[in-house]
Write a structure and sequence with these properties.
Helix content is about 45%, strand content about 20%. The chain is of the alpha+beta class. It folds into 3 domains: about 1-180, Sandwich (Jelly Rolls); about 185-235, Arc Repressor Mutant, subunit A (Orthogonal Bundle); about 235-290, Arc Repressor Mutant, subunit A (Orthogonal Bundle). Strands 1-8-3-6-9 form a 5-stranded antiparallel sheet. It has a 4-stranded antiparallel sheet with strand order 2-7-4-5. The chain is globular.
Length: about 300
Amino acid sequence: MALDELRALLARHARPDGTTAIDGVLASKVEQPYPPSPSMSGTVLALIAQGAKRLALGDRVYEYRAGQYLIASVDLPVTGHFIEASPSRPALGFGLTLHPATVAELLLQAAPGDIPSGSGGAPSSMAVSDAPDELVDAVIRLLRLLDQPRHIAVLAPLIKREILWRLITGEQGAVVRQLGLADSNLSHVARAVRWIRDHYTQSFRVEDVAQLSGMSVSAFYRNFQAVTAMSPIQFQKQIRLQEARLLLATHPNDVTGVGIRVGYDSPSQFSREYRRQFGAPPSQDAVRLRAATPRAASTLP
């Protein structure tokens, strides 16, 4: 069966950091269900070959398992973990980074009628579907190149384009297509997301970010919520707290300083929101982080 070969390829080529010799291709192998951890999703296709994974984005929860894939079309703060994994049956996943420029190029090359029509609204930035046989076959052919590295430079770009085309014309094609449309609602929200991420320590007015994204305040708020499952202020808070957790891993004795660095004026507010997010106050969580077993920070695939 196709999934059997996919499992064998992923088990053979998975590295601790998830990377492979093919640019933008990830292979993960996880042997135990670690507690949920926060990270950025990236813009990716994530296909599960064995096991199951659960992700939370705002108030939405996505679960996908063997034979299913998840699309993330905006780089957003998520919390996730494999929920089915063991040394005898590790969770195995494939990931492919999605680039807006490549999506746009394929859309321009497509003939009229090749691409299904879709809604012009803002779809969610994440979606889960069953992987069709054609998509799994293309992923397998891409991973086979890891056993024949002299073919990677020429054949890998071709197969990656095929995979992307299967996504663009597939069940979740609307989510992927908006990634490549410069004037789509999703691209406008993505512009705001990037600005907030780059300036997460700064206070801002929603009206100013809406203007930056080229939308009215009401349209911006509606589309931002649809794409991210959060308000702009909630999104900023997620980024701040994730950055704070990374800093605390290396500066466990400077809780107040870390809070200030990520934009909090009030130490008590920082401690309160941190505890609500991660289940422990910053000082306790810092000790736990230093004692935790090191593992890859990436949530996907």
